[in-house]
Amino acid sequence: MRCIKHMLAAVFAAALLGCATVPAPVPDAAARKELAPTGILRVAVFTGNPVIGTSDKKTGEVKGTTEILGRELARQAGVRVQMIAYPSVAKMVEDAKGASWDVAVVAYDPARLNVLDFVPPHLNVDLTYLVAPGSNIKSVPDADRKGVNISAARGAATALYLERDLKQAALTPAENEAAAFNLVKQGKAEAYAQNRYMLLDLAAGLPGARVLDDRFALAEMCFVLPKGRAAALGYVGEFMRHAREQGKVAEAIERSGLRGVNVAK
Length: 265
Prior knowledge:
alpha/beta; D-Maltodextrin-Binding Protein, domain 2; two-stranded antiparallel ribbon; 10 helices; disordered N terminus
């Protein structure tokens, strides 16, 4: 009986080990050609959102979840990799029309479907408001009233969502995330819309500012490709499914030091 128990334990352990070491998918020739048509996988990284990526102010080195997963994607596909930093998400999306890059990460929004093709999300994070010191806004619904100005970066998922959803408050777009936050600091906006991770960090540096407990949307961060690369899109989708299941996405979140960011189901 003891031998049988040992055998069953060994089989179970081997099964677990096998599940943990499932090989990543490998692209066929067509997918590889579409994925990196220049022979180098050009990974566009929006550095204005730390959930997606950051850029070192001194060296310009790109870091974060997109950089980590982008390098792994290139390694698995057997191609070289190049990181391209974008401080503006609107510019990054616009550059997809000219095939200036091969893969990137943005929050899903239907307004971007005419330019980008999306794979299923790999990260989730709340979208909510940071409200100015002294504001009486207590919840997301409180913010949508006459006389309230809400800032957001032009072209960001927050701006795209609020353009459709706000009923009474006014959306005040800014050129980038720093400029949108500055509108609150300068008293030109009562609330700033972004993901919870970014807002918690910013609120710590603005005494009296608060991040609301509720959310107006859930941002689903997805790898995207310029339109018309069906074979590459299918491969990246399989790669990301494998990365989620094998803990690669969770590892990227941990290595990037992100709070309030979750692996998409």
